[in-house]
Amino acid sequence: MQLFALKNLLLQKRPSITGLFLFIALTTAGQDMTRARATLKTLTSPEFHGRGYVNQGDRIAADFLKSRFSAMGLKPFGNSYFQPFTLDVNTYPGKVSLKINKTDLAPGKDFLVNPISQKGKGSARIMQLPPRLFTDTIVQSAFLKQNLSRKAIVYLSADYGKFTDNPDLLEKLHTAKALIELQKEKLTATVSTAALSHPTFEIVRKDWDTAAQKIKFRVDAKLIKNYQTQNVVGFVEGKTHPEEFVVITAHYDHLGQLGKDVYFPGANDNASGVTLLLELAQYYAKPENQPEYSIAFIAFAAEEAGLLGSKYYTDHPLFPLNQIHFLINLDLMGAGDEGIMMVNGLRLEQEFGLFNKINEEKHYFTKLQKRDNAPNSDHFFFARKGVKACFFYTLGNPKFYHDIYDRAETLPLAKFPETFGLLTDFIQQYP
């Protein structure tokens, strides 16, 4: 019956959330790769809209997590698994198009819209930046006198910092009807909480047609003020130290949609981390695996908008931060063939030493590396407030990141069971 349910679920082009719950109910306790694959496929499906803010993709993901937490028997803090908060966010829910000369470009594949872009449409003549703009005051003076209202200015992404060093040039640049920023290597999408610029398109430099003369474009942007999102929080009570917590975190949000038809699946970033969090929760929720310490599981919203969910949580904790014995944040858990990295490992010598000892004994990873703390995921604000907190991410292939190619079907989960083993061994042995 389990195999039949799984086969039918995985054969669906758009997996049924109800079907996934049925399959989960049939599986046994502990880490389960078929269940993990089904979770990953669901989180990255079109129905979740890239877990962003168009069509409330974040809320769909949060409801999914709430249902999983409830089905496992995790306890909420208070009467809800949700911790709501608000943010401003710039979105692209409608039409997004770009034509260079007579060639239509594909959003996500051929170009991105810079996330600070306001709405706009029309056509414009392409203008390359004049040589020596940043070094010759005569050239600068001539540029500042030009009317750019019907121009699309093309510049290198590396040169934007030179504009910010010269406020007059920067202000003039943003009087253009549109901007085209040429990226060095790849298209990397992001999220913004503000809309500050006329439509700005990002294109990889090697793909840019230097003979291009004109563009035609449309960007349907919508800045949403005070958008309500939510962290999702539950816990398993410890049998020896119920008042102290090991905390497992992962952000569930991603980049959402770019127009009506293009979405960012976010398999490695960070459906993989959420999937591992759920597998750990499934394991510890079973009576036979009840941990010594209580374990809280926090799925953060709005990480991609600037770590806003974890920042809100540390400012409004659901239990005192000084009751956190240790925090492990999971992000980018889909690779591992080249090892695993522990961010903040340089400062947490005792904890890194235990992780390293376990890894050497069990041979989970070829390399367990460490680096200093950085504001690159949701552990950061906890560490800033004195919590012992680290962030693990796996190393290796594929390296799709913040693009439309970060899909479930191409994510190997190469060391997923090994990561599960490393973490559960650590939690069991941590004093």
Automatic annotation (TrEMBL):
<dbReference type="GO" id="GO:0006508">
    <property type="term" value="P:proteolysis"/>
</dbReference>
<keyword id="KW-0862">Zinc</keyword>
<dbReference type="GO" id="GO:0008235">
    <property type="term" value="F:metalloexopeptidase activity"/>
</dbReference>
<keyword id="KW-0479">Metal-binding</keyword>
<dbReference type="GO" id="GO:0004177">
    <property type="term" value="F:aminopeptidase activity"/>
</dbReference>
<dbReference type="InterPro" id="IPR007484">
    <property type="entry name" value="Peptidase_M28"/>
</dbReference>
<keyword id="KW-0378">Hydrolase</keyword>
<dbReference type="GO" id="GO:0046872">
    <property type="term" value="F:metal ion binding"/>
</dbReference>
<dbReference type="InterPro" id="IPR045175">
    <property type="entry name" value="M28_fam"/>
</dbReference>
<keyword id="KW-0732">Signal</keyword>
<feature type="domain" description="Peptidase M28">
    <location>
        <begin position="231"/>
        <end position="414"/>
    </location>
</feature>
<dbReference type="Pfam" id="PF04389">
    <property type="entry name" value="Peptidase_M28"/>
</dbReference>
<protein>
    <submittedName>
        <fullName>M28 family peptidase</fullName>
    </submittedName>
</protein>
<keyword id="KW-0645">Protease</keyword>
<keyword id="KW-0031">Aminopeptidase</keyword>
